[in-house]
Predict the structure.
Amino acid sequence: MALTKVLIAVKTYPTLSEKYEELVCTAGFREDGTWIRIYPVQFRKLDYVNQYKKWQWIELDLVKNISDFRPESFRPYSLDTEIRVLDAIGTEFGWAKRKEIVFKKGIHDNLSNLIESAKADNELTSLAVVKPKEVKDFIWESCERDWDPLKLARIEESQKQFNLFDETKKLFTVAKKLPYKFSYIFKTEDNKERTLMIEDWELGQLYWNCLKTSNNDEELACRKVKQKYFNEFLGKDLFFFLGTTRQYHKIAPNPFIIIGAFYPPKEKESPQLSLF
């Protein structure tokens, strides 16, 4: 079958799956700038050389995910589908090559209009690039500190049964659950203040790294996360990658969450401008 080339722009924090043990939702752009969602992917079970990073092109055999009504949703042909990791796009000249792909199909500056298009059967948008008009704050709140113990037990039992006749195989350890939900408070051109949660893997990993450097002081770790995602990013040209969740796409007043941040330097800071 024909292979699809995708520029990876999003990897969400891992979630539990009784069928697949642990899953990551990946999203990115085709060469023509259209969005594509790839799910399910057992990312941490891939061979190391195939564990693609953000802003790398990958190539793989994809088919429409018929269990997902959202038009951008595809899945690997099988869990054994080969993923070829290709070249990466760097940050030279003010992220020029990244912006060429990300902005190719335009951006949204009015979240009310985007929500309408998400619910319109004739266009049904579930992935988008959004430019906030004003970012007011970055907050966090505590949540369940551990995965559902019953689901985790079933996953572990399934692994033991699968490895029963091969003692050389080690049990797969699922990612730790984040004990906090992180969110941006912002407005777009509709001037409505909204609070949207972020499910970016980079943010989750940043929290764990900050916790280590904060002597396990969770409050200090969260403040360090805010230092990057609010204080630092607001000095950049900040955009949000938004995506809907399949479960709530048609029923939630606002089905979108933030699945990634895009933060090229502001134009005046671009190295390209200094050439002139």
Remarks:
- Residues 269-276 have pLDDT under 50 and may be disordered.
- The helical segments are 92-102, 111-118, 149-162, 201-212, 218-232.
- The chain has two domains: 4-102, 111-143+178-275.
- Residues 111-143+178-275 form a domain with the OB fold (Dihydrolipoamide Acetyltransferase, E2P) fold (CATH 2.40.50).
